[in-house]
Amino acid sequence: MRVVAVIGSSFFRHLLESHLGFLQTPLVFATSIAEALTATSVATDLILLERHLADGEGLDLSRALRARPDTAGIPIVLLTSSADPDICTASLEAGITEVFSKYELEALSDYVSQHESRLSAATRLSGKALLVEDSTPVVRFMRTVLERIGMRVDTFPSGEQALEALGARNYDVALIDVLLEGRMTGLHLVRAIRGKEGRNQRVPILAMSSMEDAARRIELLRGGANDFLAKPMLEEELAARVRNMVRLKRLLEETEAQRDHMRKLAMTDQLTGLFNRHYLAEIACRRIAEAGRHHIPLSLMMLDIDHFKRINDTHGHDVGDAVLADTAAVIRDTCREGDVAARTGGEEFVVLLINTVGERALAFAEAMRAQVETRQPSGIPVTVSIGVAEICNGSSTSFEAMCKAADQALYRAKESGRNRVVVASL
After folding, report:
1. Taking 80 as the threshold, does the pLDDT of residue 212 lie above it?
2. Residue 138 CA from chain centroid, whole number
């Protein structure tokens, strides 16, 4: 971070160097307005100045800096030894950002440190921006600003071209002028984005215009724009607004990811990765009701690992857990799209098979049983017994009734020697 300190007193310059020694780049000192104007002609991030200088007043320097496009948006801090409240008012009117007492340099150090942290975070910003603007000079200016803060930029002069790009690429922010080439206005484009399904439907939109029309601004915001920026714009203001919009988008994405993760935890068995009993009950009730309404045949398989307690007692619970996970992997690999597999507790699993009954259900269960026996999860002999309950011809039943029938079929499979499949019809 480059800091220009306009300080006439050599003693105070030494004090500042001591208190701001944490800066990675040494302070650039100027002792007069003339030197300050020269020093700030190079890109500067923060300006510190005294109230009284050798060739004029600090507030006059602030006004001059605010009148220059390259320094109009840079924070300017006034350092004063006076406690007069009128100084603060006059300073703000002259464009000063903050006022600090020369006797409270710790507070100044905190401010400078926080500003450096914000700038450092800004340099790490990355993402993709969509810029829809038909003025070449404005595009050149905005692209420079956006790329400086780490954004990659796609530019289009018309809404039609931008809308086509939005269908093929993902963006972190969209900057849209009101007047564009082609038949589509910026307002039409904003509405089209908000009405278009897909990830970009919620992209943050910064609308822009050089026309001072409050009604137009309100309509843009109603249409779905998140913010509005008047042209001509300050470099720092543009950068700040884009940073805020991109960071807010990232924060919302993180929140959604956390919510999805929590939802997945709530519906998933952590050991096997299959659905848990609670989610199975929720989805199975819906599927069984739909099957009854639409006359869709459906089967429910209940699978139990044979002699699982013996496996735990002989090989230990770690091996037992591995057997459960490996058996779940066989179930997952055997299931088709649309099937629902869950671990319902201990060594018991349930699979809901849509549009599968009779010989097809029996063949499916036999294939799964054989797969477990052949794979030998965790390198030890493992077999499973399976009970299957099925409904045909749109019969009306419940999840509880199907579970009871499948459990009875599973019991018969166990009683008749294990490692086999028994089918029951409701």
Report:
1. no
2. 30
Identify the three-state secondary structure at position 83. Answer: coil
Q: Which residue has the tokens 């009875």?
A: 408
Q: Where are the beta strands (DSSP E) in 58-188?
A: 76-80, 98-101, 127-132, 151-156, 173-177
Count of CA atoms in the C-beta half-sphere (13 A) of 107 = 10
**What is the C-alpha to C-alpha distance for residues 169 and 171, in angstroms, rounded to an integer?**
7
Contact present, 386 and 422 (Cβ < 8 Å): yes
Rg (C-alpha) for the chain, rounded Å, is 35
Alpha helices, H only, 206-276:
214-223, 235-267
Asked if pLDDT for residue 122 goes beyond 70, the answer is no
Percent of the chain scored above 90 by pLDDT? 55
Inform me whether the pLDDT recorded for 235 exceeds 90. no
Q: Which amino acid is at 317?
A: H
What value does the mean pLDDT take over residues 261-266?
Answer: 82
Residues 390, 365: contact at Cβ < 8 Å? no
State the Cα–Cα distance between residues 78 and 110, nearest whole angstrom.
15
Paired tokens of 78: 């006034």
What DSSP assignment string belongs to 279-346? HHHHHHHHHHHHHHHHT--EEEEEEEETTHHHHHHHH-HHHHHHHHHHHHHHHHHHPPTT-EEEEEET
Tokens representing 37 are 């104007």
Q: Tell me the three state secondary structure of residue 365.
A: helix
Helix ranges, 124-158 (H): 136-148
* Residue range 256-283: mean pLDDT, rounded: 88
**Do residues 134 and 179 lie in contact, with contact meaning Cβ atoms separated by under 8 Å?**
yes
In the block, residue with structure tokens 């922010």: 173
Token pair of 229 as six digits: 């920026």
Residues with active-site annotation: 347
Which are the contacts of 343, defined by CB distance < 8 A and separation ≥ 6? 269, 271, 272, 274, 275, 276, 277, 324, 328, 349
Domains (range + CATH), the chain: 3-122 (3.40.50.2300), 127-258 (3.40.50.2300), 277-425 (3.30.70.270)
What does 32-73 look like in DSSP terms, one character per residue?
SHHHHHHHTTS--SEEEEESEETTEEHHHHHHHHHHSTTTTT
Average pLDDT for the chain: 89
